[in-house]
Every structure is written in C-alpha cells, then in structure tokens.
Amino acid sequence: AWNVYSFEKPANELVRYQNVFGAASLEFMFDLVNYFAPYRETRVFHLIPFVGLGGHMKFYSANDKSGDKLGTENDYSGLLNGGLALKFRLGKRVDLNLEGQMMVSKNNFQGTRTVHEPADVTALVSAGLTFKLGRVAFQPITPMDYDLVNDLNGQISSLRAQNAELSKRPVSCPECPEVAPAVTKPIIENVVAFRIGSAKIDKNQMINVYNSAESAKANGGKIYIVGYADEQTGNANINMTLSQRRAEAVKDALINNYGVSADNIVIDFKGDTVQPFATNEWNRVAIIDIK
Fold first, then answer.
1. What whole-number distance in Å separates Cα of residue 77 and Cα of residue 233?
2. Considering the domain 185-290 in this protein, what is its CATH number?
3. What's the pLDDT tens digit per position in 133-170?
C-alpha cells in the first residue's frame, strides 16, 4: 500500500490530499541483455522491461490538514502497468534494483483533475536490494564428449574401410587347409546410467536392463553387475554405498520386472575407486556383463 499526495488550488488556497491505495499485478519480464548477448553469470548490468495486469484499490482520500475523508472509499478497479527495471550486480549474493513504472487505473484520487475521467495514470519510481540465499551458482553439465564421439566415428569409418577391403577377397581358398571355427561364448555388455546422487533407474534406462535380461535368457549366460560412482561428487564412503545401491537396483529390476533368477546374478560395487570412463559424469553407472 502507498500514500500518494495530490494538490488542488480552489479559491486561491493550496490544499493537499492524502490518497491511500494498494495495487497488485502479474507481470511479464524480459531480460534484454541475456537475450541478445551470451549468458554470463557475472554480468553486472541487466535491462528488463515488463508489463502487467492486476487490480487497484483506493482505500480512502483525506484532507491532509484536517484529516477529513473525502469522496468514495474502497474503490476497486482493474490495473494495467508497465515499466523498466535496471538490475546491477553488487556481489555474488546482492543485486541493486532501480525500477520505474506507469500504472493505469480508475483510482479516483481526490484532488486530481481526472477524478471523473475513465482512467488515471500514476508514475512510480522505486529502488531496492535483492539478497540471494542458498545456492547461487549453476552447475555446469557436459551432456556429450564431442572429442570422444568424433574419435568413435573415426574408428567406425576405419572399420568400414577394412570391411570393404576384406569383402574383395575370394569366398573360398581350395589350397588352404580347413580350420575348425573356434567356438567362443560372446560377452554382452550394457550400461545403466543414473542421475547425480541417485540409485533410481530412470525410465529411459530400463531398455538396457531389458536387453540384458533377454540376452541372458537367449544365451544362457550369467549376469555380472558392477556399480560405480563419480569421484568428483560426495566422498569415498558415500560413493561406495551409492554404487552398491545402484548395483542392487539393477538386480532388483532384472528379478522383479523381467523374471531373471536371483541365482543367475552376481553383483559387485567399486564406489569411486574405479572410474571406467574418462568423463567424470559418465561414471554414475552400473555396468552389466553377460558371460
């Protein structure tokens, strides 16, 4: 709620009126600096225009000298407002905000020439400080290691070239002695990724659990599950427990969701003592081997 003073000069006498009112609005704010320039957490200045819709209530108007109330009381009307906010970063947790806005409503302030007009315009200027509590920085996420992807693509291209060269060789070699093919049992591996600090299997990872269950049923192999945690989060004790929970979560899903016998599953957990991948975030996993 605010006090707004208005002045009128009837009969050569200057009279001041006190108008007490309140206003609330829902505002749309648009940060021009962040939109047109690359985002930078330490940026000092932000320019933010805004518009809003809401309501306005004039509680009463009174003669400032005598205190006598004048005109109507508790007048409600709709409100349209807009303005510009200037935001200055003073530190990691403190911002200075300077704001100017115009409000359009049927406020019926006593002493103004627009008392009986369809709408009145009120200008407001304010300054304040914003204090940020708790965590104030973003945690960077590396969704993909492009160097690794490019390296894998290069290996795939090389293997394709080798395969094309091998396809040019004759199908049979009459002068070569026949060699009995070696029978080897394939090792099938799947990876189940987890969110940071979590041992809950996301829905998009259940396909890897399902594939492991189907492969084990088809090939008759035993399922080995090893849980891991990334070394840059938590501590050694927490990560060891977390990696155990991840391995057990995969085991439970195999048993309860896909009918794999518990006797056919062996689990292990390494915490952060072993990092199977070079990218830290990728080590929040449980790796499934079927042998």
1. 54
2. 3.30.1330.60
3. 887 666 666 566 667 777 787 888 888 888 887 777 76
